[in-house]
Amino acid sequence: MKPIVRSYLAEVNLGNSAPGNGQNINFQDYPQLRDIYITGICAFSSGQVAVSPSGKSVVPSLLGIAVSLKDIYNMDMIYQYPTFDLQPSNVGGFYRDFVPFELQLTKSFITILSNTGLAANESLVFNIFYVSRKDWPKYKNLYGIR
Amino acid sequence: MASGNNVKALKIERIIFPIFSNDTGLATPGEKYFFPENPQIDNKQIVGIELHSGEGAGRGDLRSFANGKLLTTVNELRHIYLNFVDSDKNEIFENVPAVSIFGRFTFVGSPKQKIFPFYGKIKTRNCYAIIPANTGLTFKDINITLTFYMI
Fold it and tell me: What pTM was computed for the model?
């Protein structure tokens, strides 16, 4: 696992009604996550994190949810990745890191593959590891980039 | 320069701090419970952070009554977030779920967590734990304990 220079907990709320199968739900805008290189990500279900920072119940299962992350050029850098495998307790305690790219969070989204067990107003929480664009020259060699 | 997770810590320091009011013994959702000031950690290069938990619901890695202070249980960790702040008051690691940096495996059947390689310098007095609203739990006389790995 590569070093974590910054982290921020982002929340995707499922909305006021139960999500439908196949539904995409975008991440909301977080000022802290603008102009960043994403270096890694974790996701959590309620077995690990019961309540989101905003007081919402966390989804009980990640099995029916995939995540897609776009870069600033609208390229699908991570496409339909199973969020179950982003929860460290499911994958040997590791977090997923990858070659950093410039994240466009507001065009990134989760996809509900199966809404079994999911309810309205629940949230999925992601811990996003990142380096801000202004700090990138200082830290990029930590990620093997010259 | 550090790369990957092969950073060897040269110094390890553990802290413990309360997340309750002295008046009531209870934790209040939304209130910030600050870390104690620790010059051994302040502005040192941290390469990893690990949290420990007492016994009880879930599986702890440290006896709860060490030094007479009651530690969180793993179940309580599911309701706690940690914020690590530097000397300029920048929140460098925001709302880290406490259970995500707990070292022992969390429940039977789940694997042991790794030590997450948080890499940065903090000011302990600016860092805090927080419990969100709607937890449904009552936290009484609870303390959090964390180990910092540094170079």
Answer: 0.93
